[in-house]
Write a structure and sequence with these properties.
- There is one protein chain.
- By secondary structure, this protein is of the alpha+beta class.
- The protein has a single domain, classed as Rossmann fold.
- Helix content is about 35%, strand content about 25%.
- The chain has 4 helices and 4 strands, in the order H-E-H-E-H-H-E-E.
- A hairpin with a 3-residue loop joins strand 3 and strand 4.
- The two termini are about 30 Å apart.
- Bound molecules: S-adenosylmethionine.
- The site of S-adenosylmethionine (SAM) has 13 residues, from loops.
């Protein structure tokens, strides 16, 4: 979690003057109560390049909190690289995972099925896994 990144988001937000963009907030998803800081219910939650660039506990916390916040039928969207059946989908992802682990041993390219299974007890059904450019996926979950 990076204050410089939040300042950058604020600066871009001010420049865009959208009028419907809340300022960035510091939410630690390893905390059991992070979702209580958000005014729900929500229609959608997006997490881009988070699951592999944070410890696995963050993904579990994201799923738990999103499960609490989303309306029935709400969408959780995850973007990033994933293994399929435990196997990397590209050689470049093997190299990328090595780089991730050099930054932090607890980061890593997660297995899609493992994320899907972790999402189920939080009330999610994975409805789509869309292949994206550069060996990434869009994973879309529906809150039951
Ligand atoms: C590679 S950045 C991705 C940023 C942005 N989504 C993007 O795609 O440019 C990884 C993000 O994981 C977030 N993160 C790491 N640990 C976290 C935690 N415990 N709770 C919430 N977010 C966390 C960081 O704040 C950071 O924004």
């Amino acid at each position: 979690m990076d204050e410089v990144a939040r300042d950058s988001i604020s600066a871009w937000g001010e420049k865009a003057a959208l009028g419907n963009l809340a300022p960035p907030r510091n939410l630690d998803m390893t905390r059991a109560d992070w979702h209580e800081q958000i005014n729900g219910p929500l229609d959608a939650v997006l997490a881009i390049n988070l699951v592999h660039v944070a410890p696995w506990e963050v993904t579990l916390g994201l799923l738990r909190g999103a499960g609490e916040l989303l309306v029935q039928g709400g969408k959780l969207y995850l973007y990033g690289p994933y293994r399929v059946d435990g196997v990397h989908t590209a050689k470049s992802n093997i190299k990328f995972e090595r780089w991730l682990k050099d930054q932090n041993e607890s980061w890593g390219v997660r297995d899609m099925g493992e994320v899907e299974r972790a999402a189920e007890p939080c009330g999610f059904l994975m409805t789509e896994a869309v292949e994206m450019p550069a060996n990434n996926f869009s994973l879309i979950f529906r809150k039951a």
